[in-house]
Amino acid sequence: MNEELFIKKVLTLEEDVRYIKEVMVTKDELRGWMDPITGTLDYLVKITTKMDTELTFMNHRLKETWDKVEAHDRDIARIKPLVGLI
């Protein structure tokens, strides 16, 4: 009886291994599917990094410009009374 059970288990395992071999993806197949995805992700990361750099630079320039506008507003407010505009 033990021998029959052992044989059944071995046959079941052989069937399982055969099924796994049929449906399992190989490394090469997986690479073939992943390469376009990885390339696209690399491209998106590159674009995002570039945009972040540009936004950081633009934010700095905007702050500089806004500081100048505020300084000009203060200067104009001081000059107006002197030239009789208020």
Fold blueprint:
Elements: H1 2-23, H2 27-83
Major beta sheet, specifics?
A: none
The percentage helix is over 70%
- What is the mean predicted local confidence, pLDDT? 93
N-to-C CA distance: 112 Å
Oligomeric state, counting identical vs distinct chains: single chain
Q: Kindly give the count of domains.
A: 1
Q: Compute the gyration radius: what is it?
A: 36 Å
Number of strands: 0
Strand content: under 5%
Extract low-pLDDT stretches: none
Strand-and-helix sequence, N→C? Answer: HH
| Coarse structural class | mainly alpha
**Continuous helix count:** 2
Give me some keywords for this one.
2 helices, mainly alpha, 86 residues
Commentary on this structure:
- The chain is mainly alpha-helical.
- It has one domain.
- Helix content is 92%, strand content 0%.
- The model has no long low-confidence stretch (mean pLDDT 93).
In short:
With 86 residues, the protein is mainly alpha-helical. The chain contains 2 helices and no strands.
